[in-house]
Amino acid sequence: MKFTVPPLRARVVREVLSDCDTGATWSRLKSNMDIGQDLLQAEYASGLVLDVGWYEDDRSNSTTTNTSAGGAFCVACIRNSDWDNPVLTIFARDFGELRRAIEVADAWIADTPS
User: Fold this and answer.
1) Contact between 89 and 75 (Cβ < 8 Å)
2) Whole-model pTM?
3) Is 113 in contact with 46 (CB distance < 8 Å)?
């Protein structure tokens, strides 16, 4: 099954998550596409940026549905291009958690004044 990115209240600048097979191993995903630090980026009217990346560890052959998946997705909210100090960071170990993390971050940004 392919990952479905939840609707965002932003302009999507980059998105490769919808190409991800949620049942594939991380090794297979990496060989079929560029799964890495730039999976989703969206710009909000407030100037905040939502950024999603994958940060790998040494268990890269685990399946995506396993909670020991070989790393974690990082959903970060960036203000004023300060990439070293996100204003919100949420980690997700699988695609289900990732979808919820994106929804939470999108709602948080929508409720955050500029």
Assistant:
1) yes
2) 0.84
3) yes
